[in-house]
Amino acid sequence: xxxxxxxxxxxxxxxxxxxxxxxxxxxxxxxxxxxxxxxxxxxxxxxxxxxxxxxxxxxxxxxxxxxxxxxxxxxxxxxxxxxxxxxxxxxxxxxxxxxxxxxxxxxxxxxxxxxxxxxxxxxxxx
Length: 126
Hints:
- This protein has 126 residues and is an all-beta fold.
- 0% of the residues lie in helices and 50% in strands.
- The strands form two sheets. Strands 2, 4, 5, 6, 9, 10 and 11 form a seven-stranded mixed beta sheet that branches. A four-stranded antiparallel beta sheet has the order 1-3-8-7, with no helix packed on it.
- The N and C termini lie far apart (40 Å).
């Protein structure tokens, strides 16, 4: 079992930045692909970014490419999402997820993830 806890959300003005953290317990994250997803009110959950087990590969949704950066520190069992140039449409609950194994194929596929955090609210005001 892996427990994931997100933090770092909050209220920020458009153009601002936030850094989300996802801390894991229960097992080391070094054997997991990690992803960030978000869900806005009235919308389905969507993929944001993913990172391979060793940080060597990353993948982003087109909507956040160039603005968001995913990273990980396996020694701290933590994954991060640095969000810059935030827009009101980035407002959502952001959740991290863990997928067991080293294969990085289809990192945007939600059904492939085994563990999910509860999420942290990000609100961007215009």
